[in-house]
Amino acid sequence: MGVGVVDSGGAVIEVVGAEAVRPLRLAVLLPGRPPADAVYRGDDAPTTVHVAARVGAGDGTGEVVAVGSAMVEDPPWPRGGERAWRVRGMAARPDVRDRGLGGQVLGALLDALAERGGALVWCNARAPARRLYERAGFAARGEVFDVPGIGPHVTMWRTVLTVSAPEPDPGPAAGAHGG
Fold first, then answer.
1. 3-class SS at 25?
2. Most exposed: 10, 16, 103, 118, by fewest CB within 10 Å?
3. Considering only 19-23, 161-165, 167-171, which range has the smallest mean pLDDT?
4. Domain boundaries, the chain
5. Residues near 72 by beta carbon (within 8 Å), at least 6 away in sequence
């Protein structure tokens, strides 16, 4: 599902600013922590993409129920010099889980990255979310590790190809005669 599309449950998936994703990021991923902890390095960079699923009003004022972000960041392993994107802050409100909104947010992020040049995409997925990433084509790299105070994670990755603009229609073939 692409950005700006309404799903069958009435959610709108859209690119938003960092300020729209931080409250849910804090509530779901970092409960009890100070709001500053929900501000990630690179959140406000011009290359960073944030996507939210909103329910309710379809005019961008609906309630944010699922979010995710992607920013330019090298993975934790050595590689060539191509650009890499890190997906982080994927969160869905508990009452809307199992509706596919996380997959739609992740899909919209991957679409946005393809439009921005694609390349390697990686994340440190919480172990319970591993299937979400696998369904989106990610593969695990390495073993499960513990993030103190948060829990078990696994590093995952995939590549995203650049989406190129369609070739313009050249019109009738050269030398063709109407008749």
1. helix
2. 10
3. 167-171
4. 12-160
5. 42, 45, 47, 48, 83, 84, 85, 86
Question: Cβ of 143: how many Cβ atoms within 10 Å?
Answer: 7
CA dist 125 → 60, 65, 89, 93, 164 (Å): 28, 19, 10, 17, 29
**CATH architecture classification, 12-160:** 3-Layer(aba) Sandwich (3.40)
The confidence band for 174, taking pLDDT boundaries of 50, 70 and 90, is very low
b/e sequence 58-92, b meaning 16+ C-beta within 10 Å: eeeebebbbbbbbbbbebeeeeeeeebbbbbbbbb
Nearest CA to 87 among 132, 55, 20, 57? Answer: 132
Residues in the chain: 179
Q: Residue 87, SS3?
A: strand
Q: Which two tokens stand for residue 159?
A: 């590549």
pLDDT at 169 over 90: no
Sign of the dihedral through C-alpha 126, 127, 130, 131: negative
Average pLDDT, the chain: 87
